[in-house]
Design goal:
Elements lengths: L2 H13 L4 H8 L3 H13 L3 E4 L2 E4 L1 H15 L12
Antiparallel strand pairs: 1-2
Helix pairs in contact: 1-3, 2-3
Length: 84
């Protein structure tokens, strides 16, 4: 995820549903940039459009974070048990 999408997603998580204009103003981005990044985030399932605004899909974001975290976690080994 690029920096702009990350900033936009964090904005939507913190502020709640927002319009492209609100996000563009708050993040000092052009409307075309916000629209393009929102479209990509919607396609990935991280953002959902609702009545002229967009909202972060926290459940989907949490699932993706857990999957990513699990990728980097080493398997748990119980060192108290002798190896077979």
């Amino acid at each position: 995820m690029n920096r702009t999408r990350s900033r936009l997603l964090r904005f939507l998580i913190a502020q709640g549903p927002s319009s492209c204009a609100d996000a563009a103003l708050a993040l000092d981005l052009s409307m075309s940039t916000v629209r393009r990044q929102i479209r990509l985030l919607c396609g990935a399932g991280f953002v959902r459009p609702t009545a002229g605004t967009f909202s972060a899909q926290l459940g989907h974001i949490e699932e993706q974070l857990q999957e990513l975290s699990a990728t980097f976690q080493p398997p748990v080994t119980d060192f108290r048990k002798p190896a077979n």
